[in-house]
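User: quick one, fold this
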Amino acid sequence: MISIVCPFYNEESIIEKSILLMLENLKSLPDDWELIIVNDGSTDRSLDIAQSLAQDHHRLHVTGYADNRGRGFALRTGVAKARGELVVTTEIDSSWGDDIVHRVVTEFGKEKDVDIVIASPHLSGGRYKNVPLKRVFLSSVGNMLIRAGTNSQVTMNTGMTRGYKRDKFLSLPLNEDGKEIHLEIIQKAMSFGYRICEIPAVLEWKDHKLTSSNSKKRKSSSNVNRLIRTHLMFTLMAAPFRYMFTASAILTLVGLFFFFWAVYNLFTPEPSIFLAITSFFLFLFAFLISALGTLSQQNLEVQGELWRIRSFLSKLDSTMLRKEAQDKMDNKN
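Assistant:
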């Protein structure tokens, strides 16, 4: 079975047409499927509309919670409810194309050992359409920096439209409740040695096709400044030694400049003590930053081991609980 998980929050203006379009598109999937939509604490009529539609469509399942918790929490909730071996997470408005689920599923068929499939507008054949230039710029530059900073070949680290083997997703110890979960998944999947591949895709903002003519154009609710801060922090923490070594090297070079300047001034009437002190502190800061980078890198490696141990213990606990439940049933019989 294939499970499609779509979070939503205050999508009253588009949710009915979006769900009906998604259901129509999914009919041609070759395998059995279910559509799980997750209400992330909507305060408008989105949930009522979705529940009404679910009464008429047996493959549509609505879940969620009362308070707005964020996309990460919504995704984890949806995947936990999913029954499929493959899970595709994507936007409710089909902004990645009507056939995106089919293409993601097909990629799993081509690549038997792949664990995650990511839709990317940054690959050849992919692009942005009707997306504000500011967002295109931030996404392109942000993903480029993340890729450069983490040695990752993934070109779209921040998008939701992905496919997962469900057991692999559930093995990841995920904690982020917001959109940072996309980065967290990539980081921990790489640490676990998962195989990740990408497919080119077109991301189109097309609210005008889903809303009535008198509806206001929907705006993204993303806090751009917050996302920039958290994504930069992720990039730094994913490869701390690289950045701190670079900073240490720059300080060392500047320190050498002041040191040789001080030595040169020994043969001139100019004073050298200030230059010597400056070079000393620059060397000291360079050493401290380098040491901090080394410790951070070691901490990252230890953290990766702890993630794997946590995942193993979680699986072991689940296995023991299932065995205990089975033993109780056998004893009753």
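User: anything notable?
Assistant: The mean pLDDT is 84.
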